[in-house]
Give the backbone structure.
Amino acid sequence: MNYWLLKSEPDVFGIDDLAKAPKKTEHWDGVRNYQARNFMRDDMNKGDQVFFYHSNCAEPGIVGIAEIVRAGYPDHTAFDPKEKYFDPKSDPDKPRWYMVDVRYRRKLKRPITLKELKENKGLKSMKLLQKGNRLSVMPVTEREWRAILALEKR
DNA sequence: GCCAACGTTGGC
DNA sequence: GCCAACGTTGGC
């Protein structure tokens, strides 16, 4: 099993939106970055655990836990000219972009803010904290996963 | 709103 | 293949 961190802007689609979705499940569509695409297409499996991260907001940080319930499959929003993330270069016979399905599990008892993650020496290696990192989909190591859950209990 | 960092595009 | 121009991300 793998661990991941998914970024989302709470003003656009936050943890509460996922919790309110039918079956508490949503397509993680609209990812238009090759590195993120590769993670979703090649490495995400059903059952993988996800930290739900709020970005571009007053208090960026990890706010909840979700689970991958469907592994990578073609992102059909790329084929539809009416969609915001339409990409004419993505051919249904040879899809350029992929998505996964994500199901809500729970909110953290309290948000673990970006600030707190940065202050934790054991988490320095986190991809999220690397300079200039803008990936919206990234792997989390098991050690990092456990360390962050331990922070929640403090 | 600002701006640094990064990814992508396209001319050459 | 190089690199300038441009668009986007996301913290602050």
